[in-house]
Design brief:
heterodimer; A: mainly alpha; 1 helix; 91% helix; 0% strand; B: mainly alpha; 26 helices
Chain lengths: 53, 541
């Protein structure tokens, strides 16, 4: 009797496939997010400094 | 035989640590306001959010308890991951509670409550959140150090050294850079952690083989290893407790919410939720597979984990009973007198056997070179979790518990200084608690139970705050008190020798469910009991 282990087989391979893909995708896109976040923070701080003056 | 080589694996680990510390300390120059420190200036975008949330919610402790679940319950042990993924997806997709929360512009969950329930409830909610969170997090450091000692083959006497080193590294960049450092290091840690998880899983699937894994589960757990309802040790209470606990965690767990609150808007935050949701299946299924592989290769031999003198102190008849025990329950077949005949330290070791088998298996299974990657991956997982948790609970202490002591907003420099002090103190607490407290039984159930100290009440408060007009501060107080009392009483019963058996009979799952029911009843009863203010007389009589 299989006890439905085909479902678990499917889930395990779905996890491996999804996780591999998302790791590569996020490794690339996340770099851009960090760059943008730091640029925005720098701009905000400069604006804040100008306002303070 | 252990496969950790200092020249090869040590270099890989050293390089990873150097890169993390440099990245974490580099971004501290962008921190000038308290919002930068606590919520990264609310500038986080989707992909960084996904990486950070995934890295935060997967620590060495996660790997250990999910592998333990796989070891003791087979594939059924991954059920909590399915519940959490479903909850994250539905909440992210619908914006249930999290949209109004992010749109409100608050930095912490209790801050939101002040608007509906008043200042005292905010303060009290802050205390409960921190109490539940710190109890929950208290075991992280010790279990992380345990894992590293076992996998590297170091003597357990180096555990304290390992814990100190881990803590100091994490504390340095978290204290200095706050959420900004946490986000950037989380990103790096996500990549290293994912590479390690995937490579080890691929090796297990290739070398141990799917058929052997399935056969092991069938042999030790039968149908219950594939279906949690069919496992008498899990059953409906487990499924209900997991569903409630994981849905509440997705709604109110401060470390998860802090990604929503750091997102640049609520749509971004919701995307982070939906796109990270499947990761919660992965974080249970893959390490669960490691646990099953450990059972397939090493088997269930708790006595082998004892030293020679500890083994000699156990009578042969008891040894036989322990050796034939059900996986993960070495003392279950012993009477009270027989259990008492075993020294407490030996009992703890036997109870921990299911937790320690996976790292023991990996220490011999992973070859030199890949061992360095595995250690780096696990360090990455642990550091990202510890840093985020320290920052999250620290932010609640500063923002909500200390709020009554700030009549006017503090200057940014002073606010950041106090946040840094709070995080450093949390580090000291982690170290001391980790050394003193021993978890009894299943680690995940402990985490869910300690989490339910606040998950139960905070989810009741949040849902009512967003969607029930009649909710008020009486209801909030009722939910907080009842939701916290139930798990605290249970944990106390568990620790007292006279009531330990009663606690074991009730079980952690029923205690968790009771906490949710009590909190909901407290909210409804309290809110309905408070007299309604009379409507203003707007019309002339």
């Amino acid at each position: 009797m299989s006890h439905g282990h085909e479902l678990w087989w499917l889930l395990v391979w779905a996890c491996v496939a999804w996780y591999s893909t998302i790791t590569i995708y996020i490794s690339v896109k996340g770099c851009f997010d960090i760059k943008e976040m730091l640029e925005r923070l720098k701009r905000d701080h400069e604006k804040q400094d100008d306002n303070d003056r | 035989m252990q496969h950790f080589s200092w020249p090869i694996d040590g270099t890989i680990v050293g390089l990873y640590l150097l890169a993390t510390m440099v990245a974490g300390l580099w971004v501290r120059k962008y921190v000038s306001r308290v919002e930068d420190y606590l919520v990264a200036g609310r500038e986080m975008n989707v992909y960084l959010g996904v990486a950070s949330l995934a890295a935060t919610e997967f620590g060495v402790i996660t790997c250990m308890f999910t592998a333990q679940s796989g070891f003791t319950s087979g594939f059924s042990g991954a059920w909590p991951g399915l519940c959490q993924a479903a909850a994250m997806f539905v909440i992210g997709w619908t914006g249930f509670c999290v949209k109004p929360l992010r749109d409100s512009g608050v930095m912490t969950l209790p801050e939101m409550f002040e608007r509906r329930y008043g200042k005292f409830v905010r303060w009290l909610a802050g205390v409960v959140v921190v109490l539940g969170g710190l109890l929950n997090m208290g075991v992280f450091l010790k279990i992380g150090g345990d894992f590293l000692c076992l996998v590297c083959g170091f003597d357990i006497k180096y555990l304290v050294l390992m814990m100190t080193a881990l803590l100091v590294m994490v504390a340095i960049y978290t204290v200095m850079g706050g959420m900004l450092s946490v986000l950037v290091t989380d990103f790096l840690q996500f990549i290293v952690m994912s590479a390690g998880l995937l490579i080890v899983t691929a090796m297990i699937l290739h070398q141990v083989g799917w058929e052997k894994l399935v056969a092991t589960v069938e042999q030790h757990h039968g149908a219950g290893g594939f279906n949690p309802i069919a496992d008498p040790a899990l059953g409906w209470p487990f499924v209900i407790a997991q569903t409630l606990g994981n849905a509440a965690a997705a709604l109110t767990w401060q470390t998860v919410l802090s990604r929503m609150l750091a997102a640049k808007d609520s749509d971004t935050g919701r995307k982070v939720y939906t796109r990270t949701s499947f990761f919660f299946v992965t974080r249970w299924v893959l390490p669960g597979l490691w646990g099953i592989a450990a059972l397939a290769i090493i088997g269930w031999h708790p006595l082998k984990q004892l030293a020679a003198d500890e083994l000699a102190a156990i009578p042969p008849a008891l040894q036989q009973k322990i050796e034939n025990s059900k996986v993960g329950k070495p003392l279950a077949a012993l009477s009270d007198e027989e259990t008492a005949a075993i020294a407490p330290a030996t009992r703890n070791k036997l109870n921990d056997a299911s937790l320690r088998t996976m790292p023991l298996f990996l220490s011999a299974f992973i070859p030199v070179g890949l061992m360095g990657l595995l250690i780096a991956a696990m360090l990455a997982a642990d550091m990202s979790t510890d840093s985020s948790y320290m920052l999250s609970w620290g932010s609640v202490i500063y923002n909500d518990i200390l709020a009554p002591f700030r009549r006017r907003p503090w200057p940014h420099r002073k606010a950041i200084f106090w946040n840094r002090c709070i995080i450093a103190l949390i580090g000291v607490y982690l170290f001391v608690f980790g050394l003193l407290y021993t978890v009894e039984g299943n680690v995940w159930s402990y985490l869910l139970l300690t989490g339910s100290v606040y998950l139960s009440s905070m989810s009741a408060l949040l849902i009512a705050c967003c969607y029930w007009r009649r909710a008020n501060n009486w209801g909030a107080l009722g939910a907080i008190i009842l939701g916290a009392v139930v798990p605290m009483v249970y944990l106390t019963l568990e620790k007292l020798p006279a009531t330990a058996k009663l606690a074991a009979d009730i079980g952690k799952d029923w205690a968790s469910i009771a906490a949710f029911v009590a909190a909901a009843l407290g909210m409804v009863a309290g809110s309905l009991l408070k007299p309604q203010p009379r409507p203003a007389q707007t019309e002339a009589a």
